[in-house]
Structures are given as structure tokens and as C-alpha cells.
Amino acid sequence: MIYIINGQIITMNKENYNCGTIVVDNGKIVQIGKNISISPKEEDIVIDATNLWVMPGLIDAHCHIGITEEKKGIEGDDCNEESTPITPYLRAIDAINPLDPAFHNALQSGITSVMTGPGSANIVGGQSAFIKTHGRNIDDMIVKAPAAMKISFGENTKNLYRSKDKAPNTRMAIASMLREEICRAINYKNKKEKAIESGDDFEEEFKLEPWLPVLEGKIPLKAHVHRCDDIQTAIRIAKEFNLNMTLDHCTEGHIIADEITKSGFDVIVGPDLASRNKLECKNADFKTSGVLAKKGVRVAIATDHPVSLIQYLPICAGLAAKKGLGIEEGLKAITINPAIICGMVNRVGSLECGKDADIAIFTGNPMEVFTDTVYTIVDGVVAYKAEK
Q1: Checking CA distances to 189, which of 51, 243, 247, 315 falls within 20 to 30 Å?
Q2: Taking the mean position of all CA atoms in its chain, how far away is CA 79?
Q3: What is the pLDDT of residues 228-250, one digit of tens each?
Q4: Which residues pair with residue 300 across a beta bridge?
């Protein structure tokens, strides 16, 4: 068991505790509050968090950790399958290397879970996974896979396939080819359901099966969108087929905040701590999160690692807080909001009894530059401890 005592506990739930206690057993939070008596055994871990912030582990809702590896160049870059534009059958878990040093950087920053997946080269890139940041075997790190289906609009896809002299060359083609693929998937789903109902034989199609959890509402589309027109096209298509979706990057979201609010879709903003090296990113600004949040949009902040390095996730939230998001919403944007947006709020995102013991302990507000991470606990295991 782990006992965290005397901490300033920020639960990201309804109630916080000054000089509070958290009790962890078998990877779960079993007690949290004030005036909790403890009787630790010799083998138990007791952490005195006096004058420290105790928070839920931070969450990066959009990154490519383990897939685009640091320090390994092309040999470690498995982010984009650039041979064909529609690849829903690709799975992030088949490309993640848990030995990517970025996982240690994440733990050093109090980040305990992430949504990682394919990049934006293809119209349909494949299946993202929600994983923990501690482990040596990806199968043990998985919380949910597939957790989302990556789709992309705009420059990356258009420019790649234009250079290959094949479709898509335009935004019209991207939208058309995505619609065609979704229609194929719907027809496949209907045929399969009829065959099951009638008891007829049915041969499953490997390349269309991955669409079923999307069509059944079990996982969302994860839409790479920067420009206003791409955001609006993504919304139009998702509404047309009645699909769940997150708007990822949403760089010009502040320009069409009312339209995004009306759509009802959640937004994952970032990376703003990066150069405006693409035309569609020319209006990138840390104010986007605050503008959207004030309109009632649920916002998470992401690094898009390695575009912005994952260890700067809390700093990105701090810069967004400075530009109008505010401290409370800034903390939500890297804890409870990404947990909700990624469909993982039953497991992570807040400190509550019964949830995973993913806990980060800081010397202060993690969004401040001079704050240090003292402990990072993942599933009840001390995954990082700062050296004195």
C-alpha cells in the first residue's frame, strides 16, 4: 500500500483537501480526505507531501509518443503509412516502442497517460490507443485500444499525395474519399448484421472491421483539423453520418468559436508551443483554448509530441492559462477534460476512490516553469521519484 499524507490535494473533482491523505491499495485509490488514520506496515510506502501539490496524473490527449521515437530518425519513425491514403486497419499498438526515452520525460513531468496514434499523412490514418506511460510491454500499458479512429483534413494529406501524383490533390477529394469510405463501412455493417440475424455465413473483411466501433459510437473519429474550413468540413461529415468526433489541433478554432460550440464536439488544442511552419498554422495562438472554453466548449491541451515535446504539456497549459484560459481551466485541460474527451473518465483524470492510482506530486502548480515533479505514481507504482 501507499500512503500520501499531509498534501495539498487537488482532486479535480468536487472537493479539495488541505493537509489531506490518500490511501492506495492494489493500484486503486481506496481512501481520500482529511483525518484519515493510517497504520502502515513495514513494506508499505509512506510519502510525506507537506507543502506539496498532490494531483491526478496529467494526460496528453494527442501525441505520437513511442511511434515517432526520439533520437532514432527514420528507423524509429512509424507515424505515417504514406503508401495509400485510407488505412483504418493500422493499429498504433503495433508501432509503439515503450523504450522511447520520451516516456521517461513524460513521467518526469507527472504525465501518467496519453492518447497516441498515427499521424496526419492519410485521410484515414488508423486506430489510436489510450495507454499508460509506465511499462516495458505495450500490451500491459494499454488502457483502451482502439480508442479513436484518426482522420485528417488539409495540407498534410493533400500535399503528400499530390507529390505522388495520386488522389487526393484537393480538399474536395479528401472529403469525397472519406465519405466514400464511411459509406462502404456502413454497407458492410448492415450486411454483417443481416447475416448474423438470418444465420447466414459471413466472411469478415479485415479492412472494414475497424470501422464498426466508430459506427456503433464506441470510439470517436479523431480529426486532424487546423483551418476554419477544415474544421467545418469535419463537423459537416460527422453530422452527416451521426458520428462522434474530437476536433484535434483546432488551430483557428477561436475564429469560429460559435460554430464549434454549436457542433457540440470536444476540442483538443495544440501544439501551440511550436513554429508556424505550415500555412494552415499561421493563426496559431495560445488564446484559442480560452476563447473556446469561455463559449462552453470542453477543451484539452496537447503537445502533438514530438512537434512540441511531451514534457512541456503543463507549460503549454500555463501559457494558455495566461492568455485567457485561467488557472482552473488550465489544470482541467490536462487532467479531467482529456479524461472525459478520451472516454477514460471512469479510470483517470481525477482523484477519487475506485479510480486508478495515477498520481502526480509537485512542488507547486505544474503549469509554472519553476515547479518540479517530486513523485509520479502509475497504477499504484512509484514510476518516478526525484533525486534529492
Answers
A1: 247
A2: 16
A3: 999 999 999 999 999 999 999 99
A4: 268
